[in-house]
């Protein structure tokens, strides 16, 4: 609990020179309660009345995945990965080298639900960088796509996400087996630093870390919906466009947030500014998680004026702090869009 001497306006405590949050504590499951981050996210989504809108849409191909399909495919995959010939067990590490695809969301849910540590990396990395990352996480298996799989050392077993075999696993009718016990203190993911202060480092996140982030965002969304209802407003359906890759901590966390809140997520396998603008217009996107360089483009590019971006309600900025001057330039062009600094 925060000490009693904190400033009620700022949350600053002069005794230990620490700022404390003034928000109510986010409800979390007891630390001793066994639950994975995937199970927690799905518990918030619920299973009795799944959202009717798509869970995921590919911005380029328009292929989509419904919430029932997301759950059934992740369940089938989780069961298959625990069985022969994979035999993955809690604590095993899965290295993932792939651009953002619909299958990545299924894979993340399946692996984390059975206690396998997810370790996604940038597919644009060089073979030497990937070898370094593999040396850090020591995976039992790798998941990749045909275009970049050759970068992975040959001694690591690889399952291709764009292979007919992987597709067949997603629709297999293997009976579900009991889910292993996952402690919240267990490692859920090993993500990688940007390498700006030296070689890339592996950053460990526990299930508890992810659960706390998911719960906080779910609580905030519930509060906003309650405020809208009290004001007699009918909130529009949330559609998030991911310009950020799913291997990055920002995209990784935002994906679980979207699943837990039942939002539609539009994925971009590769970022193109014009394609992003077209996707916002086509899919009536309401929220875009973004890094500051994208805010620069939105605030200054004349291309923005050629598209109907009226559906856009929120830009969640992460990855780096947003400067005041840039924020003011963005607000001048988009006065009706909330600009929010996201904390992961």
UniProtKB/TrEMBL annotation:
Transmembrane segments: 239-260
SUPFAM superfamilies: Acetyl-CoA synthetase-like
Domain AMP-dependent synthetase/ligase: 53-341
InterPro entries per UniProt: AMP-binding_CS, AMP-dep_synth/lig_dom
Catalytic activity: (E)-4-coumarate + ATP + H(+) = (E)-4-coumaroyl-AMP + diphosphate; (E)-4-coumaroyl-AMP + CoA = (E)-4-coumaroyl-CoA + AMP + H(+); (E)-4-coumarate + ATP + CoA = (E)-4-coumaroyl-CoA + AMP + diphosphate
BP GO terms, sorted: phenylpropanoid metabolic process
Keywords carried by this UniProt record: ATP-binding, Ligase, Membrane, Nucleotide-binding, Transmembrane, Transmembrane helix
Alphabetized GO MF terms: 4-coumarate-CoA ligase activity; ATP binding; trans-cinnamate-CoA ligase activity
Gene3D superfamilies: 3.40.50.980
Documented EC number(s): 6.2.1.12
Domain of life, source organism: Eukaryota
UniProt protein name: 4-coumarate--CoA ligase
């Amino acid at each position: 609990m925060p000490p009693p001497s904190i400033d009620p306006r700022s949350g600053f405590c002069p005794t230990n020179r620490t700022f404390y949050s003034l928000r109510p504590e986010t409800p979390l499951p007891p630390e001793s309660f066994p639950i994975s981050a995937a199970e927690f996210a799905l518990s918030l989504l619920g299973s009795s009345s799944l959202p009717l809108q798509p869970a995921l849409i590919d911005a380029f191909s328009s292929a989509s995945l419904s919430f029932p399909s997301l759950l059934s495919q992740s369940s089938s995959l989780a069961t298959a990965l625990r069985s022969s010939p994979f035999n993955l067990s809690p604590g095993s590490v899965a290295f993932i080298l792939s651009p953002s695809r619909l299958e990545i969301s299924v894979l993340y849910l399946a692996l984390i639900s059975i206690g396998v540590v997810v370790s996604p990396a940038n597919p644009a990395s060089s073979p030497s960088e990937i070898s370094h990352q593999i040396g850090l996480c020591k995976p039992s298996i790798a998941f990749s796509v045909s275009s970049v799989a050759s970068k992975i050392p040959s001694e690591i077993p690889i399952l291709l996400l764009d292979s007919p075999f992987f597709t067949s696993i997603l629709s297999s009718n293997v009976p579900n087996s009991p889910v292993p016990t996952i402690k919240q203190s267990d490692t859920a993911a090993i993500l990688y630093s940007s390498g700006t202060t030296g070689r890339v480092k592996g950053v460990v996140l526990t299930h508890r870390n992810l659960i706390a982030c998911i719960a906080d965002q779910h609580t905030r969304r519930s509060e906003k919906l309650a405020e809208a209802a009290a004001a007699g407003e009918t909130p529009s359906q949330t559609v998030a466009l991911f310009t950020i890759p799913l291997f990055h901590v920002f995209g990784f966390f935002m994906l679980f947030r979207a699943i837990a809140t039942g939002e539609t997520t539009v994925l971009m396998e590769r970022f193109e500014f014009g394609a992003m603008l077209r996707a916002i217009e086509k899919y009536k996107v309401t929220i875009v998680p973004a890094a500051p360089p994208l805010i620069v483009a939105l605030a200054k590019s004349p291309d923005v004026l050629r598209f109907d971006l009226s559906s856009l309600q929120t830009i969640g900025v992460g990855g780096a702090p947003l400067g005041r001057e840039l924020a003011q330039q963005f607000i001048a062009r988009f006065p009706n869009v909330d600009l929010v600094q996201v904390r992961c």
